[in-house]
Amino acid sequence: xxxxxxSGGGLVQTGGSMRLSxxxxxxxxxxxxxxWFRQAPGKEREFIAVTRWASAYNYDADYADSVKGxxxxxxxxxxxxxxRMNSLKPEDTAIYYxxxxxxxxxxxxxxEYDYWGQGTQVTVSx
Length: 126
What we know:
By secondary structure, the protein is mainly β. It has no helices and eleven strands.
């Protein structure tokens, strides 16, 4: 059975940093795209970042404009993905979800993902 589990959320002050982690298990995920999305209250789920299989154990990364330069996605061993978030703002407050997908294209749409975690809350205080 596939499991995608996020960890590392919590409360941080404006300008602070936080690191989220995600582990996928129950399958072979090395070729899967692993992405992060977030959803704030009353808003739709939005793409944040993704790491995608590019070639043999090489992965590329893509970011939403809203986090580019502040967030960094990284991948270890093909199945553990981290999201380093710097210079956090109150508008970054949301539930952050990790997802795994295969067979998609650019992986900016939630519909390109097959498996999702339960989410972890990130709150940035002003």
